[in-house]
Design a protein that fits this description.
This protein is an alpha+beta fold and 113 residues long. The protein contains 3 helices and 5 strands, in the order αβββαβαβ. It has one domain (4-104): HIT family, subunit A (2-Layer Sandwich). It has helices spanning 4-9, 57-73, 88-91; strands spanning 17-20, 24-28, 36-42, 81-84, 100-104. It has a 5-stranded antiparallel β-sheet, covered by helices on one side. The protein is globular. The termini are far apart. Bound molecules: guanosine-5'-monophosphate (5GP) and zinc ion (ZN). Residues 3, 5-6, 45, 97 line the site of zinc ion. Guanosine-5'-monophosphate (5GP) is lined by residues 4, 15, 27-31, 39, 86, 92-95.
């Protein structure tokens, strides 16, 4: 298994882990795009949004709730933040293990372009 996020989940490679629970692990992005840039990943390997199944509904909910909690801890809840999940090439996905980006500490534009 050469999935880098599975390796982080299993602690086979280092990451700056900021949160873990029964469902998810969250760690700082290695190439941050904002002063807060955390990735929330399920412990279960799911390659893209396209592979999600009904049985995974709790996992996705837990990812979002972990992001909400971390936004509070990182002090960005009040000013705001952005949650992003990229899917496949047009979505800009580069790591094929589902992940939610938590981005904050600066203003993001919309539409994203
Ligand atoms: P994607 O483009 O797939 O939505 O996002 C993948 C993210 O994972 C990128 O922002 C990239 O910087 C981050 N990333 C890739 N490899 C590693 C790694 O080994 N460690 C950490 N902490 N982040 C990684
Ligand atoms: Zn994986």
């Amino acid at each position: 298994m050469s999935c880098v996020f599975c390796q982080i989940v299993k602690k086979e490679i280092d990451a700056a882990v900021v949160y873990t629970d029964e469902w998810v692990v969250a760690f700082k992005d290695i190439h941050p795009q904002a002063s807060t840039h955390v990735l929330i990943v399920p412990k279960k390997h799911i390659s893209t949004l396209n592979q999600l199944q009904d049985a995974d509904a709790e996992i996705v909910g837990r990812m979002v709730l972990a992001a909400q909690k971390l936004a509070g801890e990182f002090g960005i809840a009040q000013d705001g933040y952005r949650l992003v999940m990229n899917c496949n090439s047009d979505g800009g996905q580069t790591v094929f293990h589902l992940h939610l980006h938590l981005l904050g500490g600066r203003r993001f534009h919309w539409p994203p372009g």
